[in-house]
Amino acid sequence: MTSQTTPRHFLRDDDLTAAEQALVLQRALELKAAPFSRRPLEGPRTVSVVFDKPTLRTQVSFAGAITGLGGHPLVVDGNLAQIGSRESIDDTARILGRQSAAIVWRTHGQDRIEEMAAHAGVPVVNALTDDFHPCQILADLLTVLEHKGSLAGLTLGYVGDGANNMAHSYLLGCALAGLHVRIGTPDAHQPSPAILARATEIAAAQGGSVLVTDDPSATVDGVDVVVTDTWVSMGMEGEKGDRQGAQSPFVPFAVTEALMASAATDAIFLHCLPAYRGFEVEAAVIDGPQSVVWDEAENRLHAQKALLSFLLEGA
Length: 315
Ligand code: NVA
Description:
Blueprint: H1 18-33, E1 46-51, H2 57-68, E2 72-77, H3 78-81, H4 89-99, E3 102-106, H5 110-120, E4 124-126, H6 134-148, E5 155-159, H7 165-176, E6 180-184, H8 193-206, E7 209-213, H9 216-220, E8 225-228, H10 240-244, H11 257-260, E9 268-271, H12 283-286, H13 293-313
Helix pairs in contact: 1-6, 1-13, 2-13, 4-5, 6-7, 6-13, 7-8
The chain binds norvaline.
Residues 128, 133, 164-166, 229-230, 233-234, 272 line the site of norvaline.
Catalytic activity: carbamoyl phosphate + L-ornithine = L-citrulline + phosphate + H(+)
Binding site for carbamoyl phosphate: 82, 106, 133-136, 272-273, 300
Family: Belongs to the aspartate/ornithine carbamoyltransferase superfamily. OTCase family.
C-alpha cells in the first residue's frame, strides 16, 4: 500500500519549523516521563533502519524509540543492501516504503537521502549524512533545555571541524531554537556558505545570531554551552594522521580545561560521541562536572521517539 498523503521527512534540521521543533522537544519531555504513552506503530508496524556507516547510539536509540512507539525496528546492514550500486536508490525507496511505516537512513551524500525521500512514500529520517546530523541536534537541544530550563537567547560555542555534519546541524538547529551560535574553526574548515546563509536567515527570524571565527577563545568566551566533535568524521579515516597529528590545524580548538574556564561558570559541555580524549577534548572536561554527555546520549532515544511520533501522527 502506498500512502495517500504526502509524507513529512526530516532530512535536515530546517525541515521542521521553529514551532514544530519546539513541539517535538516538548513531546520528547512528555515521552521521557511516560515512555509508552504514544503508540503510532502499534501492530507492530516495521520501521526500516539502514546503516551505510558505523553506528552504536543511533542503532540502539532508534530501536528503542521504534519499539517504545509499538513498532518493530528492522536494522538493515547497508553493506549487504548496497543501496545505489546493487540496486538503485529509487527502487530501494519504493521497496522499503511499501513495507515500512518509515525509513531511517545513515548514509554518505545528502543527495542520496533526498532521492530516497522523493520515492519512498513514507517519512524518511536522516540518521546522519556527510552534511547533517539533525537527530543529534534534537537530542542536544533537549539536553540543554533540561539543564538550562529554556533555549532562546542562550549562546552555544562549537569548536572543531566547522565543515562537518555536526557544525552544519548546530548552525541550522540552534538558529531555529533562537540560540546564538558560534562556530570556531580553522580558516580552511569553514561551514558551507549556503548552510551558513540559511542559518543566518533563520537566526534573524528567531532572534538569535550566527558567528564563524578562527579564534577558539572568542568562540567559547562566556557561552552557556560548549560543544565539540571528532576531528575525523566517518569517511575521513585516510586523513586521520593530518587531522589528529601534532601539526593539525585543529589543535588550538581542543576543549581543554583552560578553554572551558572561559565559558560561563555554569556552562555545560556536550559531545555527540564517540569522543577521542586527548584530541578534541581533554578527559578532565568530558569526564568532569560540567559534562552532560551521558544525558545527551540517552536523549537520542527520547528525541527520536518524539520526532517519529510527530512525523507519523502530526501535532
Ligand atoms: N562528525 C561525526 C559525527 C559522529 C556522530 C561523523 O560524521 O563521524
